[in-house]
Write a sequence for this structure.
């Protein structure tokens, strides 16, 4: 497994604030508004933080700047069901490593239905007669199937809250897939609230809380601490919460 950022496909990202409107909401996002450069140091980077702290905005900008469709898919996907990507996509610059990934995928739980539809359509047009039937499976089953048929070594994968579709058991399967691909030089940048996925060994966790993006230990994340507190003190915690 890679242990530093020197040979990563995406080594960092900078923001040119001159390209962002003075009135843009991007200037209100605490973690992003003071950011000039963000370095990736490990081949698994995880963005954590409170709802609305800017994680998906940053991930989407990286994805679109790299050439992915804002709704997800491979770089070849050109379908669009809505046009809502932020102007951050045009204001960032990616610092790319020498090594080019062989394959890549941008996967967002929130627009997976559209990606699955596109996957089925592209499969029907495939001269090799490839068959994909994502809509005949459950959300989690099809999500994991798509991951398992697309993840490989030396790929670039951008994942936005993949846990939304997956049971805890299947999150463990995803964790294993990620670790195995990372051992073969794949790079992952993932947004997650999952205390399971956050536990991926060797990942660099970046928190978008407290006004700036900063690295954080697994045990210091809210996802870990609140889950642990809930499981260990469920009765007391619920009583306090419900009595308020
Ligand atoms: N088109 C838009 N216009 C105005 N504000 C927006 C727009 N899109 C996003 N925002 C705001 O930008 C902020 C960051 O949103 P973002 O989706 O990046 O958060 P997040 O950290 O990914 O949250 P979550 O964990 O809930 O997915 C939020 O306050 C959101 O309301």
């Amino acid at each position: 497994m890679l242990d530093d950022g020197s040979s990563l496909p995406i080594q960092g990202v900078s923001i040119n604030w001159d390209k962002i409107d003075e009135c843009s909401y991007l200037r209100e996002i605490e973690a992003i508004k003071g950011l000039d450069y963000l370095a990736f140091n490990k081949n698994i980077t995880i963005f954590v933080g409170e709802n609305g702290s800017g994680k998906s905005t940053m991930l989407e900008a990286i994805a679109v700047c790299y050439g992915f469709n804002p709704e997800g898919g491979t770089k070849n996907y050109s379908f669009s069901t809505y046009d809502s990507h932020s102007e951050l996509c045009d204001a960032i610059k990616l610092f790319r490593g020498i090594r080019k990934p062989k394959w890549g995928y941008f996967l967002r739980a929130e627009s997976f239905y559209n990606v699955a539809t596109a996957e089925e359509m592209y499969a029907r047009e495939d001269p090799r007669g490839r068959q994909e039937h994502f809509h005949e499976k459950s959300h989690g089953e099809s999500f994991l199937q798509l991951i398992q048929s697309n993840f490989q070594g030396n790929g670039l994968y951008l994942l936005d809250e993949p846990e939304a579709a997956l049971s805890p058991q299947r999150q463990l399967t995803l964790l294993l897939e990620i670790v195995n691909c990372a051992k073969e030089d794949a790079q992952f940048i993932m947004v997650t609230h999952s205390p399971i996925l956050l536990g991926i060994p060797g990942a660099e966790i970046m928190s978008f809380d407290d006004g700036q993006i900063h690295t954080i230990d697994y045990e210091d994340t809210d996802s870990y601490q609140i889950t642990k507190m809930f499981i260990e003190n469920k009765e007391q915690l619920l009583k306090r919460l419900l009595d308020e």
In short: The helical segments are 30-33, 55-66, 88-91, 112-125, 139-150, 168-183, 222-232, 234-243. The first strand starts at residue 10 and ends at 15. The mean pLDDT is 87.
